[in-house]
């Protein structure tokens, strides 16, 4: 789905990471076990289509979801819009960092793998678009359910 529908979109809309956003939403609304199972399935499907080494997407997605799980259950006290958007931004950055580090290690410390880190577009656009995507889904869930709070903390 990611490679077929999102990648051909025009600039800057091809920066949506639908799989990672879906995994963060699974973690946020359901459970860590379900998000980890989704990570394994999505990682395998991405690795089968990728020309990188097998396991790159599994490991990078797993690193992002594990970090998001730790932050969600150790630091966040409620399930509100701003916590979901921040969680999405952290997971997106963690997945990008993990992928770049794994590629760098797999290429025996070749500096060409670090070219993805230099461009601010490869960092900023995915974080913004994933946050907007999860915010839209959050409001849909809030409209149809009482599981989440759409308001900021007030005194």
Q: How would you portray this structure in words?
A:
The chain is mainly alpha-helical and 155 residues long. It has one domain (16-144). Helices cover 70% and strands 0% of the residues. Helix 2 (18-29) packs across helix 7 (121-144). The longest helix has 26 residues, at 81-106. It is globular and about 50 Å long. The mean pLDDT is 84.
Labels describing this entry:
globular, 155 residues, mainly alpha
Structural class based on helices, strands and sheet pairing: mainly alpha
Secondary-structure element series: HHHHHHH
Separation of termini? 43 Å
Instruction: Calculate Rg over CA atoms.
Output: 16 Å
Assembly of the depicted chains: single chain
Work out the number of β strands: 0
Biggest pleated-sheet summary = none
**Strand residue percentage:** under 5%
Q: Give the number of domains.
A: 1
**Fraction of helical residues:** 55-70%
Low-confidence stretches: none
Number of contiguous helices: 7
Question: Mean pLDDT, as a whole number?
Answer: 84
Shape: globular
Q: Topology of this structure?
A:
Blueprint: H1 2-6, H2 18-29, H3 32-49, H4 56-74, H5 81-106, H6 115-118, H7 121-144
């Amino acid at each position: 789905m990611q490679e077929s529908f999102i990648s051909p979109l025009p600039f800057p809309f091809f920066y949506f990471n639908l799989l990672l956003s879906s995994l963060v939403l699974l973690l946020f609304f359901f459970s860590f076990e379900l998000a980890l199972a989704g990570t394994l399935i999505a990682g395998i499907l991405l690795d089968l289509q990728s020309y990188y080494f097998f396991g790159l997407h599994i490991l990078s997605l797993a690193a992002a979801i594990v970090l998001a799980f730790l932050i969600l259950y150790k630091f966040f006290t409620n399930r509100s819009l701003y916590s979901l958007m921040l969680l999405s931004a952290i997971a997106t950055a963690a997945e990008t960092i993990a992928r770049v580090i794994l590629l760098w290690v797999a290429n025996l410390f070749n500096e060409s793998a670090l070219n993805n880190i230099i461009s601010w577009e490869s960092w900023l656009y995915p974080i913004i678009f994933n946050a907007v995507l999860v915010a839209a889904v959050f409001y849909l869930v809030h409209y149809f359910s009482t599981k989440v709070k759409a308001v900021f903390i007030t005194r």
